[in-house]
Write a structure and sequence with these properties.
mainly beta; DNA-directed RNA polymerase activity; about 150 residues
């Protein structure tokens, strides 16, 4: 059996540098920079569920499963795991904002030695721009986005 660290493909701390809520009432596009400055993130976020302000710090994880032991979701959908109610704890219990989505595009920027990764969470988009060594593990189809302040 695998462990949760195998299921976590990406983890970093970001500082919110910009919040643009000009297009939608309840959705903002936030721009963030990682603590080491090597990775940038743009994320569409539901501001009713998870309001963000410039200067806030976010802990962001991308994982292949919500199971704490890193095991697969056993053909259950991610909503089914949550509906089990009162059952086993999941990775989602430790975060404030959780989405499930599909990584749909990779762009290699060989000149900058950077990888750009694009993900859709049911229409809310995320783009990560950073070094190969930090983002290469994201070459999977589906991921969970977990965020907390």
């Amino acid at each position: 059996m695998s462990n949760t660290s195998d299921a976590q493909l990406f983890e970093d701390h970001f500082r919110v540098t910009e919040v643009d809520q000009s297009k939608y009432d309840r959705v903002a596009r936030i721009k963030c920079t990682s603590g080491d400055g090597a990775t940038q993130m743009e994320l569409d976020i539901n501001t009713e569920l998870f309001p963000c302000q410039v200067g806030e710090n976010l802990h962001v994880v991308l994982a292949t499963t919500l199971s704490l032991d890193g095991s697969k979701d056993d053909e259950r959908g991610w909503r089914d795991v949550a509906k089990a109610g009162g059952g086993e704890a999941t990775l989602a219990d430790m975060f404030d904002y959780v989405c499930h989505g599909k990584i749909y595009k990779f762009e290699d920027d060989e000149k900058a030695e950077q990888l750009n990764v694009y993900t859709s969470f049911g229409g809310l988009l995320m783009a990560l721009f950073g070094p190969y060594k930090k983002l290469t593990s994201l070459r999977v189809d589906y991921v969970y986005l977990l965020v907390k302040k």
